[in-house]
Each structure stands twice: as C-alpha cells, then as structure tokens.
Specification:
With about 140 residues, the protein is α/β, with parallel strands linked by helices. The protein has a single domain, classed as Rossmann fold. Helix content is about 50%, strand content about 10%. The chain has 7 helices and 4 strands; from the N terminus they run βααβααβααβα. A 4-stranded parallel beta sheet has the order 3-2-1-4. Helix 5 crosses helix 6.
Amino acid sequence: MPRGSEPKPLLLDTHYWIWLQEGASGRITTRLRHSIEEAAAAGRLLLSVISVWEFALLEAKGRIELTISCEEWVKSALATPGLVLAPLTPEIAIESTRLPEPFHGDPADRIIVATARRMGARLATRDVKMRDFALKHRIPVL
C-alpha cells in the first residue's frame, strides 16, 4: 500500500458480525481476522444498520437464540472497539434498487452491497450470490 494512503473500509456481512460477537473463530479465516483487526484498529470496520434489523429478525423468528435480550446483545455488539455503524442514507437506499442485474431480491443483501459500493468498502461475506456480484462489479471482497 502506498505510503500515507489508508486502507479501504471493511464492511461486514451480518453473518460475520454475529460470528465475531459469538466467538465463532473457526468460521473466520486467519486472513479475514487479520483484515478485521486492521480495519477495527483504524476505525474503518463497518456494519450496515440493516444488519441490526436482519439480526433482530433472525432472533424474532427463532433462528437465533439469545441468553440476553436482543436489545442488550445489539448494544454490546455495537460497542466493539473500532466498529462503525454505517447508516442507511437515501443514496444507499436508492442505489440498492438500482444494482446492476441480475441480483437477488433480498433487501438486506441489496442494502449491504449498495453500502459497500457507496462507501468504497471491501465486503466481507460468505454469501455466494453477493460474492459473485461483488467480483463481477469490482467490489473488493474477502
């Protein structure tokens, strides 16, 4: 990396955020963990606000079980040092409806990809559709 240039922000897909908070380190490669640590240290580790909605929906549907309230879990998870909550701006909302097709209709995935594009961020995801789309449209993906 050229001297004086900052690394691009790193945007976590919802599953990586959950796995980090739950200590599921076996699901995260050493390379990605290193990238996450670097981004967090620089205050450039991003999470889309839609991931909070997606997490709460998973919990409400019983797909995730918590020992504390959803609100407490989210509050604690958002306090992770170096993690920045990326807002859902009007520009990101509009961009999510205008992604080059084909892209699947999941609104959370569309907003996460649009957030990466708008914020010039690298995207950390295991979602095959999101990875394929990101690679095809020159969004750095880990």
